[in-house]
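For the sake of transparency, this paper describes our internal protein records without simplification. Because each token names a local backbone shape, the row as a whole describes the fold. One such record is reproduced below, unchanged from the form in which we store it.
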Amino acid sequence: MKERMRDVFAEAVQDVVEMAQLEKSKGGRMPNRITGTLINSLASGLNGTFANTGEDSYIVTLAGLKLGDVARFAWTAPYARRLELGFTGTDSLGRNYAHPGNHFVGAAAAQFPQRVAYWSAKVKT
């Protein structure tokens, strides 16, 4: 039963991270890749560490997941927060912006309960 719980959690989290990483041109919310900096800035880790970095770092992190672990994921590009939440105003270089948020992380995270329900029905003991 515990192994099933771990598998459901890991599969649901993997789905959420993959949704967050899905570019707009492919139906997602993450801005389309120009340099790859944002998508490659993903940092992943367990229990307070960020041991893995890169576009697919979540795969390594989830492979080591045990029941009771806390998995963390963050996009560390300097502009990731602005792209997620939006920004209106003048930056430190005097440039004016009126950029709405893409909410690539928030929208994906909101799907977590549905992904858990999906995998709960699929993963067998």
Remarks:
- The chain has a mean pLDDT of 95.
- The longest helix spans residues 2-21.
